Amino acid sequence: MSTDPKFEFLCRMGDNALVLGHRVSEWCGVAPVLEEDIALANVALDLIGQTQLWLSLAGEVEGAERDADKLAFHRDVWDFRNVLLVEQPNGDFGQTMMRQFLFDAWHLAQLTALIDSSDKEIAAIAEKSAKEVTYHLERSSDTVIGLGDGTEESHRRMQAALDLLWPYVGEMFIGDEVDAAMVAAGIAPDPASLRAGYDQLVGDTLAAATLTKPEDDFAHKGGKSGARHSEHLGHMLTQMQWLQRAYPDATW
Amino acid sequence: MVKPAPHSRPAPAPVPGVVRDTARRGAALAEKPTLETVWAWLSAIPDPEIPAISLTDLGIIRDVAWQDETLVVTITPTYSGCPATSIINLDIEMALRDHGIEKLDLKRQLSPPWTTEWMTDTGRAKLEAYGIAPPRPAGGPQHCPHCKSQAVERISQFGSTPCKAQWRCQDCLEPFDYFKCI
């Protein structure tokens, strides 16, 4: 795998969208109500569309004749660069929406900062994606508030989802040498610089949802560097990639 | 025993692309068509998912230009994952080839991103007549596209295509699509 930090960065953006998009698409046909089923499928569709843009550009930057499909379907777990949060299983509907909210709030901040990127292609993808993700965040924060401040049962489930997922939030704000290279080139923001705005937004939403943010800020990490994914990603890839693994390069 | 009535069903329509008017397709043009002519051709191509409006009504064709002998058409996607995008490119290519364009380049442009402000007034009127409430900066439909009542409520932020949301009229009780404003 290339060590070009720009390629790594683009894989991180693309893999976050791809893995979450696939996770959300697992709800298609089995969501609690028809409207939510359609909404989840639409969010998944946006994310897969964004994946296409990020990973296509990653492939061009790498220059090894790998297009978005090759990168999505012909890499194994250790080459994925998504944060651990997005590969966590769907759980119940509340857990899926909590994961979506915790990611959307970071995603929109990241994309908004990338609109000012020194790289014109990255800025264009960010500008396009930010419009879609604004809408995702509107829905996921509304749903977190609705369910958190809902019935006793829905409140209990949302608090359990928050407690389960909070340790995966920190990774999104921990920078490494790839991030440092992106900051130096004016391509992307320092991840830590997005934390204050995130905490404000998430804090306000959780308060409106009558949910309590866990006090411990311990953060699992290893997803975006590829050092140590959770066991869930490999299982997900067996589903997502089985056709290309069984019939390499098959096309419609 | 019921005897099936002969000729009770109309003959199947010819499959597009299989039986074609070969005389017109690909016929070499004596001279380059003007850009106005090309725009007029494009304005006759319906959106594949909402055929009531055309691609130019939707505002996704950003530019048409000649580069030497090549016609360059610049298109912007509505939503990054919209499955209609590839069909739209195919429809544009088929239509322009039918008009005799031989050298064609379809360019994708992401920035500035598509906005519903680029939808034409004609497009908005056609949407409403079709039963889809047109986009409004206020964030919701002006009224029910069926009975025009202003008592409307949102059912879901998403709908049958990425560009629409589901709403319902509280007077006539009909659900309807609202074209999201982005």
Helix content estimate of chain A: 55-70%
Shape of chain A: globular
- What Rg of chain A do the Cα atoms give? 17 Å
**Largest contact between chains:** A-B, 27 and 20 residues
GO cellular component, one term (chain A): cytosol
Pfam family, one (chain A): PaaA_PaaC
Protein name (chain A): Ring-1,2-phenylacetyl-CoA epoxidase subunit PaaC
Organism (chain A): Sulfitobacter delicatus
Q: What do you see in this structure?
A:
The complex is a heterodimer of chains A (252) and B (182). Chain A has 252 residues and is mainly alpha-helical. Chain A has a single domain (5-210, 220-246), classed as Ferritin (Up-down Bundle), CATH 1.20.1260. Helices cover 64% and strands 0% of the residues of chain A. Chain A has helices at 5-25, 34-62, 68-73, 84-87, 93-114, 120-148, 152-165, 177-184, 195-208, 231-240, 242-246. The radius of gyration of chain A is 17 Å and the shape is globular. Chain B is an alpha/beta fold and 182 residues long. Among the domains of chain B are: 35-108, GMP Synthetase, Chain A, domain 3, CATH 3.30.300; 130-179, no CATH class. Chain B contains four helices and seven strands. Chain B has helices at 35-42, 55-58, 84-98, 121-130, and strands at 61-67, 70-75, 104-108, 132-133, 152-156, 164-169, 175-179. Chain B has a four-stranded mixed sheet with strand order 4-7-6-5. Chain B has a three-stranded mixed sheet with strand order 1-2-3. Mean pLDDT of chain B is 87; it is low at 1-23. Classes of the chains: A mainly alpha (252), B alpha/beta (182). The interface between A and B is medium-sized, with 27 and 20 residues.
Features:
heterodimer; A: mainly alpha; Ferritin; B: 182 residues; alpha/beta; GMP Synthetase, Chain A, domain 3; three-stranded mixed beta sheet; 4 helices; 20% helix; elongated; Ferritin-like_SF (chain A); PaaC (chain A); Ring-1,2-phenylacetyl-CoA epoxidase subunit PaaC (chain A); Aromatic_CoA_ox/epox (chain A); FSCA_dom_sf (chain B)
